[in-house]
Amino acid sequence: MMNRTRIQIAKPDIVRHFDALPDHVLKPKEIYAILAEQRDFWRLAQNTTAERFIEFLEKHSKLKQYEFRFPQRAEKCYVWDQAPLLAILLGLKKDLHFSHYTAMRAHGLTEQSPKSIYLTDERTAPHASERENKINQADIDNAFKKPARASSNWVEYDDKKIYLLNGADTGHLGVVTELMTDESGAEVQARLTNLERTLIDITVRPVYAGGVFEVAKAYELAKEHVSINKLVAMLHKLRFVYPYHQAVGYYLQRADYKSSQIDLVRRLPMEQDFYLTHEMNDTRYDSDWRLHIPSGF
Question: What phi and psi, each to the nearest 5 degrees, are found at residue 166?
Fold first, then answer.
């Protein structure tokens, strides 16, 4: 029988260690740290580099690599044994969270089964053009005559489109950690936008929520659970240059919220006309909210 290498001898201990990990979705640097911490205990040869260690585990144990080739940059992580797709996606980068249509589904704000998954990666600084600059009516009119900006940073995986969106720096406002259930029924401890932040996000980007009819339905389904006080407080903190609160107020009124709730939004300044969404051809004007909306809506 051939002499076994040190890593082969240590394999049962390595497997036990990885089996005992609380999280089976691992970033490469987390595996590097495990190797550095356990190398002496496992008596591994010094020429067992992190790359060789990972290669050995992929060939001879339960470690699998998952790589998602997003157009902006490929992202990868490793899974020990098995993990739900939602957990794998959150493991691609630090501080990712689910948003838009995916958060809608988690909060019960849609009756559809979305074929896209939305992940958001917050930028480290505010996006000046949308969060600090003043804007005039002509700027608003010109911006909303054009198609909505939609990210091309997506990949197809398992019959789904997975979007990795770049989000403005909000200090992870309204991002919570709670249990989500995927389509197979598996539970995942996930980071996602809370109910109020989700409603704001889909008002701002209905293109990531199935369109304005789905957004309107989400406001209806949120009616018994959402805190409008919290939602308005978030609007203040987000400091949008566009008056998205006028669209929020319209959705609340359309879903027949209490007048006391609607008034919390009505108190915000309405100094300019606004649009429910981009590139609407045939519109009507709601003077209550100074809002252009699709005529068939």
Answer: -90, 120
